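Changelog entry: the Sepallata-like MADS box transcription factor 3 record was regenerated in this release. Current contents:
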Amino acid sequence: QKKKAIKEMGRGRVELKRIEKKINRQVTFSKRRNGLLKKAYELSVLCDAEVALIIFSNRGKLYEFCSSSSMLQTLEKYHKCSYGLLNASQPAVREDEDMYHEYLRLKARVEVLQRSQRNMLGEDLGPLNTKELDQLEHQLEISLRQIRSTKVINQTR
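Regenerated structure tokens:
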């Protein structure tokens, strides 16, 4: 009898899926967020642990808890522990990642330059807004003046 009474007092298992009703979802978020923040605080006090908790709501609002005086220092400590070990144990992987990021950066730069070249040739102007078209026109006028000036200098020689 007692076991049954205890089971009925508990909440039971909750199916983990997105809550469809917006108001219910907001209430649940608020209650669980507060419970999580409370647990983080309790863990830091009871176990003398350095705890940092960052929560963003679905609207992008920030909620945070940090047991130390500075969230930034805790995040730097985390970064050193997580990525410092990665760097020490896998330098080749890090170099590959760096090279890949450099490749992506250069690829993006080439795409920008190619788009700019096409625009200078009067192609692919559709996506440009009025301000961008004005800037392009101004740049072309400057280039045309330089060409004409060079042409005059060459003709006088």
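The chain has a mean pLDDT of 85.
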